[in-house]
Specification:
Distance between the termini: 13 Å
Number of domains: 3
Order of helices and strands: HEEHHHHHHHH
CATH superfamily of the largest domain: Homeodomain-like
Largest sheet: 2 strands, antiparallel
Strand order of the largest sheet: 1-2
């Protein structure tokens, strides 16, 4: 899950199963009581319909928690001022080196590349809203300058930020980043 709409969708699946007051947050679901085998199968089917899947493998779980930490880092203006490695270690309680190695093995790309992709998606979002200068967006997204943002944006997308805006702001789903 990558946004509050995802959380609402998962809550709706649980509600359809008769689960009351689940603690659902981005990337986690906590229930007061375990689901029966048939309810768990129905929950998994509901998640698949949404394009989600339950994570039960410890390595995959750590990678998913790392992705959530990266998203939090990208979307929280105060957090993006700190080093990504420090934020991940703080949120996961695991050394950055260990998370980074596991992330690369499971995902087939580095956590840094994932971080850059998430930052660019955040910039696309901010560009699509309009009303902000590139300097303001660079500051919000944690870039040192608009020039740095522009270089990284063009490297990832093949477009400059202004060309992206002129094309009508095409974005891809965050779960495909």
């Amino acid at each position: 899950m990558v946004c509050e709409r995802c959380v609402a969708a998962v809550k709706a699946v649980l509600a359809s199963l008769g689960v009351e007051n689940p603690a659902v947050d981005i990337g986690t679901v906590e229930l007061a009581a375990p689901l029966s085998d048939s309810a768990l199968a129905s929950f998994d089917a509901g998640l698949r319909e949404l394009g989600f899947a339950r994570v039960s493998d410890p390595a995959a779980d750590l990678v998913e928690r790392a992705k959530i930490a990266v998203m939090h880092h990208v979307r929280n203006e105060a957090e993006c001022r700190f080093k990504l490695s420090a934020c991940i270690e703080k949120q996961l309680g695991v050394s950055y080196d260990a998370v980074s190695r596991l992330f690369s093995q499971v995902e087939g790309r580095t956590i840094e590349k994932y971080h850059i992709a998430q930052k660019v998606e955040r910039v696309k979002e901010l560009l699509s809203y309009g009303g902000r200068s590139l300097d303001e967006i660079a500051d919000i997204a944690g870039y040192s300058s608009a020039a740095h943002l522009s270089r990284q944006f063009k490297t990832v997308t093949g477009l400059t930020p202004s060309a992206f805006v002129k094309l009508g702001c095409p974005r891809k789903p965050l779960d495909k980043v």
